[in-house]
Write a structure and sequence with these properties.
- The structure holds two protein chains of two kinds.
- The longest helix of chain A is centred in the first third of the chain and has 13 residues, at 2-14.
- In chain A, the strands form ten sheets. In chain A, strands 1-32-33-34-35 form a five-stranded mixed beta sheet, with no helix packed on it.
- Helices cover 4% and strands 37% of the residues of chain A.
- By secondary structure, chain A is mostly beta strands.
- Chain A contains three helices and 38 strands.
- Chain B folds into three domains: 2-96, Orthogonal Bundle (Cytochrome Bc1 Complex, Chain D, domain 2), CATH 1.10.760; 111-154 and 215-231, no CATH class; 161-208.
- Chain B has helices at residues 2-8, 15-28, 54-63, 79-92, 113-122, 145-153, 216-219, 223-231, and strands at residues 51-53, 94-96, 128-129, 132-133, 161-165, 170-178, 182-187, 194-199, 203-208.
- In chain B, the strands form three sheets. Chain B has a five-stranded antiparallel beta sheet with strand order 8-7-6-5-9, with no helix packed on it. Chain B has a two-stranded parallel sheet with strand order 1-2. Chain B has a two-stranded antiparallel ribbon with strand order 3-4.
- In chain B, helix 5 (113-122) packs across helix 8.
- The longest helix of chain B is centred in the N-terminal third of the chain and has 14 residues, at 15-28.
- Classes of the chains: A mainly beta, B alpha+beta.
- At the A-B interface, strand 10, strand 29 and helix 3 of A face helix 2, helix 5, strand 4 and strand 8 of B.
- Strand 10 of chain A pairs antiparallel with strand 8 of chain B, so a sheet runs across the interface.
């Protein structure tokens, strides 16, 4: 196992791909490669026990917790909260530099709210998507609004923005929610300086475009395909990679017969024009709400001895897919969870086998539950260990599909679900260390409740993450042994990062319980209804 | 007193209304991550087994809860449907403080959601109309089809000017608010318009812009539908 790890390091080094962060944490996923891996090693396995809290910052907005990933550049941290507050904070002391409170309408009226998962920083601006479907650009130094543009009227589309934008060259790329509404998804890019719309890519092809034939009748107008999380970027290929969510209605596919492109797909777009380069669909004609929405992780690894440029992505249905990121060719897929019954497997070409679809009016037990074999919280890749670290959830649900007419811009689920125990009465969660190509597991850390925070890997061979009960902790990246723990007082649903200011390495984590999936937990774990909310950033370092 | 009130809510709602409410609830309320099947709780609060007054249920269902994820369903559901949902939610728990199910409201207004959406996507990014949209250009409530057709092809705009910046750059724009040091303008170069906040020093001059025309997307819009929305009572 160790040897395999070393070989992978070599492969990465050969291709000179550096997906590690250093002093800064410049992008949502750390770097464009989305490794969530910091090359800092001042804090490591031998001294992590001495980690102490350096400062904390209360955002004052605890509605649905704190789900963001801080961005850190030149000693300044930028963070957003529910209801679209943004703060710039001195990353060494916790002193507020500026605050921006976006004026949202009193009620948003769509189910994808009120959280925000992060900002993007570039070209001297801080960019945020809003609950009422606008994009704002703030002056990085002062927090003053520079431009603001409406992506699409909220009342019409039933969609809005909760994910972090991605800055690529002179554009800021923004995804929208709306995948569980009668809505046609898209991705838009705006000029960073002027705010002018640069391109728009519809995730559902319109009449005359290739792929349109994978939709029945008018279903393409209401077929979902949200782009609600954040993508990645390969500067060499000039591809932007984005994960496209589930088709709508979620559980009823009878009025959208066909593969329903490009839902549940990874799309590669030309960063300058937004034109489709390739796509890989993970779940054709999805009837389980198995978004391909999560982070596309860019890895250069050897496959059968041959170096390849790959893209790894965790599907909400609990499978991990690896494709070639130059052309979308399927490479491998492996299950992340044990309780998975919606298919019996995936063949060597990436085809799904033995589909177990929900039935109209009759309950069907489907595992995992709608919250996912994993939620949107992100995994981490360590080039030092050659392992991919991510969480998984063992849980099931009873789904009843129902035929529904689309109502433009409104909820469009086509059924209902109710969480259920696993067949072995052991609903729980875990954080594992896996070979990224085969899923061969090196270790597994078990958790009573669903782990819903992202992982941070560091060159100190540590994995940092938090749990719903407020514990923020460090595991040994090589063994999974718990080395350090700190109780932050509220559960973890955001993403920890690491950065350096004046020679000191810091580990920062949002703490603040909430979110849609957190709310669902009460159906299986009633005590979770009482988990305390919060919205604080905790920052740690060596004394 | 309390017992009396509790006894009073034994009155049962019309089974047809309840069935309709159940279906609507499954479609719009239990969905996704909201109230869960039969109000069993999800990220929205549990509704099953709780005690509410009917007035409160009606109020929250119609108007939503400000600064929360709970939307108001007024305008998104008919009054009769709101009534059915309220009766269904009431049936999941206990209702206090009134004499039983209210009668279904009569007199539905025409559903113009489709027409409103056509207005929003083609015009509402620049115009307000009947309480929705963005006020960059003039308010359009009450306009007839003939009036909007005329407005779409009119020349010599009154609001749109050519704004020249200190950098020499220029573009079609409409002024927004102005607080002395900072000036807001809508940049109309491309749709949707961009609201810029500029330091006054960046503005060199405003010039007439007789060539400005509505973008193609406005001309391509279904104007009859849009007029129906704008001129409906």
């Amino acid at each position: 196992m160790m040897r395999a790890g070393l070989l992978l390091v070599l492969a990465a080094a050969l291709c000179a791909q550096d997906g590690a962060t250093h002093k800064d944490w410049p992008h949502y996923g750390g770097t464009y490669q989305f490794w969530r891996y910091s090359a800092l090693e001042q804090v490591n396995r031998s001294n992590v026990k001495r980690l102490v809290a350096k400062w904390s910052f209360q955002t004052g907005e605890s509605d649905e917790g704190l789900q963001a990933t801080p961005i850190v550049i030149d000693g300044v941290m930028y963070i957003s909260t529910s209801w679209n507050r943004v703060f710039a904070i001195d990353a060494a002391t916790g002193r507020e530099i500026w605050a921006y409170y976006y004026q949202n309408p009193k009620t948003i009226g769509v189910i994808y709210s009120p959280w925000n998962r992060g900002v993007a920083v570039g070209a001297g601006r801080v960019f945020m998507g809003t609950l009422d479907n606008h994009v704002v650009a703030l002056d990085q130094k002062t927090g003053r609004e520079v431009w603001k543009v409406e992506v699409q009227p909220l009342a019409q589309c039933g969609c809005n923005i909760t994910g972090a934008p991605l800055v690529v060259k002179d554009k800021v790329i923004v995804g929208v929610t709306g995948g569980d509404s009668a809505h046609r998804g898209y991705l838009t890019a705006y000029n960073v300086r002027t705010g002018r719309l640069a391109w728009k890519f519809y995730t559902i092809p319109g009449p005359g475009e290739p792929g349109h034939e994978t939709w029945q009748g008018d279903s393409w107008k209401y077929g979902g395909g949200a782009t609600w999380m954040t993508g990645s970027y390969d500067p060499e290929l000039n591809h932007v990679y984005w994960a496209v969510g589930n088709p709508a209605a979620d559980f009823y596919g009878g009025s959208r017969k066909g593969d329903n492109l490009y839902t549940d797909s990874i799309v590669a777009l030309d960063a300058d024009t937004g034109k489709l380069k390739w796509y890989h669909q993970q779940v054709p004609h999805d009837v389980w709400d198995w978004d391909t929405a999560y982070e596309p992780v860019l890895l250069d690894l050897r496959v059968n001895g041959k170096p390849r440029k790959l893209l790894l992505n965790v599907n909400k249905g609990g499978y991990v897919f690896v494709v070639d990121r130059t052309n979308g060719e399927f490479v491998s897929a492996w299950p992340l969870v044990k309780n998975l019954n919606w298919i019996t497997g995936i063949d060597s070409k990436g085809n799904l086998l033995g589909r177990n679809e929900p039935k109209v009016g009759v309950p069907t037990t489907i595992c995992p539950a709608i919250g996912g074999g994993r939620s949107w919280n992100q995994g981490a890749w360590s080039p030092r260990t050659g392992l991919y670290y991510t969480t998984g959830i063992e849980w099931c649900q009873e789904v009843i599909a129902q035929k529904e007419e689309p109502r433009e811009g409104r909820e469009f689920f086509g059924g209902t679900f109710k969480l259920k125990q696993t067949p072995d009465k052991d609903a729980h969660s875990h954080l594992g260390a896996y070979d990224p190509l085969t899923g061969k597991r090196k270790w597994l850390y078990r958790s009573k409740y669903p782990l819903l925070a992202s992982q941070l890997a560091t060159a100190g061979d540590l994995i940092f993450t938090g749990d719903p009960e407020g514990n923020f902790f460090a595991l040994d990246a090589r063994s999974g042994e718990k080395l350090w723990n700190f109780q932050t007082g509220s559960g973890h649903r955001g993403s920890a990062v690491s950065y350096e200011v004046n020679g000191q390495q810091y580990i920062a984590t949002p703490s603040g319980w909430g979110s849609a999936v957190a709310g669902l937990m009460g159906q299986l774990w009633p005590e979770a209804e009482r988990f305390r909310k919060g919205s604080t950033i905790f920052v740690f370092g060596l004394p | 007193m309390l017992e009396l009130i509790l006894l009073m809510q034994a009155a049962v709602a019309d089974p047809q209304v309840l069935a309709r409410g159940e279906k609507l609830f499954a479609q719009s309320c239990s969905v996704g991550y909201c109230h869960g099947v039969a109000g069993a709780a999800a990220r929205g609060p549990r509704l099953a087994g709780r005690t509410f007054t009917r007035e409160y249920l009606v109020e929250v269902t119609r108007d939503g809860i400000p600064r929360s994820a709970m939307p108001g369903w007024k305008g998104r559901m008919s009054e009769a449907d709101i009534h059915a949902v309220v009766e269904y939610v009431a049936s999941l728990g206990t209702v206090t403080g009134d004499a039983g199910p209210a009668a279904a409201p009569a007199g539905e207004t025409e559903d113009l959601t489709h027409e409103r959406n056509r207005f929003l996507e083609s015009c509402g990014i620049c115009h307000a109309g009947r309480g929705v949209g963005k006020a960059v250009g003039p308010e359009l409530s009450g306009r007839t089809e003939a009036e909007i057709r005329a407005g779409l092809v009119a020349r010599r705009p009154a609001l749109v000017k050519r704004l020249e910046l200190a950098s020499g750059e220029s573009f079609p724009a409409v002024t927004g608010s102005d607080d002395g040091d900072w000036v807001q303008v809508f940049d109309l170069s491309v749709a949707p318009p961009v609201l810029l906040t500029l330091p006054r020093s960046e503005i060199r001059q405003w010039k007439d812009h007789n060539e400005w025309q509505h973008p193609q997307l406005a001309h391509d819009a279904p104007l009859a539908s849009i007029a129906r929305y704008l001129s409906a009572r």
